[in-house]
Amino acid sequence: MTKSKSLFREYSEALAVAFLMAMALRTFAVEAFRIPTGSMEDTLLVGDFLLVNKFVYGAKSKINIPIVDVNIDLGFSLPAVKDPKPGDVVVFIYPVNQKDNYIKRCVAVGGQSLEIKNGVLYIDGKEFINPPLAKFDGRPRRPAGHGDYGIWPQTKPWNKDNYGPIKVPEGHFFMMGDNRDNSLDSRFWGFVKREEIVGEALVIYFSWNSDGTFFDLVRWTRIGSLIK
Question: What CA–CA distance (Å, rounded) separates 74 from 65?
Answer without folding.
Answer: 13
